Design the sequence.
């Protein structure tokens, strides 16, 4: 499956998952995260959220990768509000955002022109002890330049 993702063959990933499931081959959180990523890349973030519910029903504990993938998918489909809600929900449930999670949301906010929220999130990131990297600073500066 990872080779299909690397080749951006997201529909193939879905097909492979269906075949594995119908053959009774169990899947794990890693496999589900790949599937959610593929759904998001196909702009089917709604199905990614449905799969999140399925993951929880199966007794798996989603991780920061699961949430970050859905945040990125939400941002890429211009559903910034959904991404922010998921970020807040994730924190309330005790999951710690990492630099990738913060960077994903900050980038989405900047691309949407909401640099004020992005800057507040950048400050929150720093205060939480999670250090911004060059990519996050670059994304923020790009967003600031675009809004003047």
Sequence:
């Amino acid at each position: 499956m990872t080779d299909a993702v690397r080749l951006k063959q997201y529909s193939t990933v879905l097909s492979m998952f269906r075949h594995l499931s119908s053959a009774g081959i169990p899947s794990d959180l890693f496999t589900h995260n790949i599937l959610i990523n593929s759904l998001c890349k196909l702009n089917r973030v709604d199905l990614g959220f449905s799969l999140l519910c399925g993951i929880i029903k199966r007794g798996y504990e989603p991780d920061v990768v699961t949430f970050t993938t859905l945040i990125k998918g939400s941002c890429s489909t211009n559903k910034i509000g959904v991404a922010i809600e998921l970020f807040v929900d994730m924190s309330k449930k005790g999951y710690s955002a990492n630099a990738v999670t913060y960077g994903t949301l900050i980038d989405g906010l900047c691309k949407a022109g909401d640099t004020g929220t992005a800057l507040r999130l950048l400050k929150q990131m720093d205060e939480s002890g999670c250090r911004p990297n060059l990519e996050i600073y670059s994304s923020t500066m790009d967003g600031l330049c675009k809004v003047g």
